[in-house]
Amino acid sequence: MASSSRCALFFFFLEVAVAIALLLPSGHARVCPPCGSTEVPYPLSTADGCGDPDYKISRIARARETVADPTTRLSLLEAWSSVQVFLFGVDKIKLWSLTWRIVCGLGGALVVAAAGLFAYRRQQRIRQARERLAKEREEILNANNSSGRTAKNFSGRELRRATANFSRDNLLGAGGYGEVYRGVLADGTVVAVKCAKLGNTKSTDQVLNEVRVLSQVNHRSLVRLLGCCVDLEQPLMVYEFIPNGTLADHLHGALSRPPLPWRQRLAIAHQTAEGIAYLHSSAVPPIYHRDIKSSNILLDERLRGKVSDFGLSRLAEQGLSHVSTCAQGTLGYLDPEYYRNYQLTDKSDVYSFGVVLLELLTSQRAIDFGRGADDVNLAGHVQRAADEERLMDVVDQALQGGATRLERDTMKALGLLALGCLEERRQNRPSMKEVAEEIEYIMNIEAGNAGLKDLES
Questions:
Q1: Which one, of 78, 209, 48, 62, lies nearest residue 143 by Cα?
Q2: Which of 97, 183, 383, 386 is deepest in the core (most CB within 10 A)?
Q3: Residue 194 annotated as part of some ligand binding site
Q4: Transmembrane residues, as ranges (predicted)?
């Protein structure tokens, strides 16, 4: 039985090889009626001794239709057995030519089969790896999510279509985390799609962390998360599209002319402070942003401020006054006490926000080597001016020109509040809730309650 199976397998491969070598048309190599205990594939025919233990295969033709007389068929094999080689009775040149064509055909068939099997197994491994990766990322996103809310899961195909396959024409910006693209979903919703850097594990972790944090919060002054995608090699997050760039763009970037009016700056400061205060006081557990800066404050169509980029954010630990972690953030905004002690608290965000307030007052960058060696750091630059009782000298002259005395008083008040946020010891800094209340008080002085309602509506 085993011998019969081996014979059948041999003739199967021989049939394939002959079909390739002789260029037979599709369907031409058919199976003849059973002969003995095996089936001999056409165009092979057996000799009179068919049925003997050693099968006699004597003739081969290129096509049944072209051979009128069976005796004219080319004699291919005189005898074959499990221990014998093929014996041919034809011209040696023709014999070797035909032999090599058969061997090459058989080899080619095996190579094609092996390549197909390899490609299939490789695609299977890639698909399984992607499924495992997506599952692991979903578990990461659901970990420590006390709110029970989860982000909508977009497919990679859906986001490729929305961004025109991540066309450079749709690129909104890029940074250490990766890139942000403008996209349009199938229902017409305009979104921003944030991509982690390909192959950068740290960037990937930051995007996953941002999705996890934003899934737990909901405030008008925080950028709104719409969903995420975890089935591609780099994870993506999808959030509301904010059309007017960042606060940094409007203070000292491409959108800084004309300058933002003072009342608008106060409103942005108040909106941002309320968003951060929500993270510290209303979120459960509290959230420390860890990277508050003007380039992470987005402005919507009405120039209302929204805090974004939660990639470095950390959740507060219950019963602990701080989170022990390596200092991360942006130079010029980084809390010096956090940098020294590796103790992250809500007051670390307060310090960073104090620098943002100084940017709103001065329209200058947090770090600027053009200011001179002693004034590179904006916080130190303004603190030195305040110590010398010339705080108003560093306030943007474009704001002071035409300003009323009351407006200049509110500028000074905001400057003093900013310096309070920058106190060396964190115990001496106000909370973000207190900062938001103080800014609201300054706005009431400057514009009255009616003006405040108009700005916040």
A1: 209
A2: 183
A3: yes
A4: 98-120
Query: What is the number of residues in the chain?
Result: 457
Q: Which sign does the torsion angle of CA 8, 10, 12, 18 carry? A: negative
pLDDT at 77: 37
pLDDT digits (tens, 9 = 90+) for 192-202: 998 877 666 66
Residue 329's Cα: distance from chain center in Å?
21
168-188 pLDDT tens trace: 999 988 876 778 999 999 999
For the chain, the average pLDDT equals 76
Contact at 8 Å (CB) between 75 and 88? yes
Coil, strand, or helix at residue 406? helix
From the CB of residue 367, how many other CB atoms can be counted at a distance below 10 Å? 15
With beta carbons less than 8 A apart as the criterion, state whether 345 and 284 touch: no
Cβ-contact 147, 215 below 8 angstroms: yes
| 387 catalytic per annotation | no
- For 172, half-sphere exposure in the C-beta direction (CA atoms, 13 angstrom radius) is 19
Mean per-residue pLDDT for 344-364? 96
The predicted-structure confidence for 10-61, as pLDDT tens digits, reads as follows 556 555 555 555 555 444 444 343 344 444 444 444 444 444 444 444 444 3
Tokens of residue 422, six digits: 């920058």
Question: Can you list the domains of the chain with their CATH numbers?
Answer: 2-107 (no CATH), 152-240 (3.30.200.20), 247-456 (1.10.510.10)
Indicate which residue of 231, 291, 335, 349 is catalytic. 291
Percent helix, strand, coil in the chain, to 5, is 50, 15, 40
Cα–Cα distance for residue pair 308/222, rounded to 1 Å: 6
The sign of the torsion formed by the CA atoms of 306, 312, 314, 320 equals negative
DSSP state of 403: -
Residue 415, pLDDT score: 97
Tokens describing residue 215: 């899934």
DSSP assignment, residue 53?
Answer: S
Q: Which residues pair with 402 in a beta bridge?
A: none
pLDDT per residue as tens digits for the range 111-131: 888 888 888 777 777 666 566
Is omega for the bond preceding 243 within 30 degrees of 0, making it cis?
no
Give burial (CB, 10 Å; 0-12/13-18/19+) of 415.
buried
Evaluate if residue 68 carries a pLDDT over 60.
Answer: no
